[in-house]
Specification:
2 domains; eight-stranded mixed sheet
Length: 255
């Protein structure tokens, strides 16, 4: 039976104001490589290939009537797009290679605004050190006055600060939405031992009910290299040295 597959790729972009955003260094090159490889080698066995990425992420080079490219921006956009596809189609596999940002903007404020609010609220209060810490923390978490981010924040704003909040964990939503879909995720660490990398990937696989977590070390990516370990139920089941090998191994385990 022909397969329906989702590939997520590249970074997410999280809004700070009308023009500023935070993102990461991911390009989407690996996701695009996987999509190209699948279309070139397995097009007859694909019913639909959904490719979810930001506007500036790398896109597949190979065209196909079976390829549907969907542009997302933020983590919330990505989750909503996944929900829509997963709830309305029988998806066989999700390859979640997107480098989802860990943080998004919660509010912006100047140092003076924050200092004045803290001073006003604790002035003349006879608080213990513990109570003082808690009151200041409550103000920092939810100040009454912030800089408006509905439009572009002035480039002359002094001592501008941004409070960040955690983004939702996309990988944790996929099997909740579609339990029968095979999930293949990625984990990227930097400069760690192989043992630590495999341990973290194993825990991530078990927590999110993934078929495989492809474990990468940033220090071993570049100049044509892309060292990766396919961590499955039996531990490390495949080892790859390049993006081409990762794509080829994915074909082997999916088709």
């Amino acid at each position: 039976m022909k397969k329906n597959i989702i590939i997520t790729a590249g970074p997410t972009n999280e809004r700070l104001d009308a023009v500023m955003k935070i993102t990461n260094m991911s390009t989407g090159a690996l996701g695009a490589k996987i999509a190209d490889d699948f279309i070139i080698n397995q097009e007859n066995e694909i019913n639909r290939l959904y490719y979810l990425a930001t506007k500036l992420s790398r896109r597949p080079n190979v065209s196909s009537a079976k390829l549907e490219e969907i542009t997302i921006e933020s983590t919330d956009d990505l989750i909503n797009a996944l929900k829509k596809i997963l709830l309305n189609n029988k998806i066989d596999v999700v390859i979640h290679s997107a480098a989802v940002g860990d943080y998004k903007g919660e509010y912006s404020i100047t140092a003076r605004m924050l200092a004045e609010e803290i001073a006003c609220k604790i002035y003349n209060k006879n608080l213990s050190l513990e109570a003082l810490n808690e009151e200041i923390l409550a103000i920092i978490r939810n100040p009454e006055t912030t800089v408006s981010d509905e439009h572009k924040i002035s480039s002359y704003e002094k001592d501008l600060m941004f409070k960040l909040a955690l983004t939702p964990k996309v990988i944790g939503e996929i099997k909740k939405i579609s339990p029968s879909t095979d999930l293949i995720g990625f984990k990227l660490l930097d400069g760690v031992s192989k043992e630590e990398l495999i341990e973290v990937a194993t825990k991530l696989r078990e927590k999110n009910l993934a078929k495989y977590i492809i474990a990468n070390d940033l220090s071993k990516i570049g100049s044509g290299r892309h060292k990766a370990y396919f961590v499955g139920e039996q531990g490390v089941e495949y080892t790859c040295e390049t993006k081409d090998e990762i794509a080829k191994t994915l074909r082997k385990v999916i088709f």
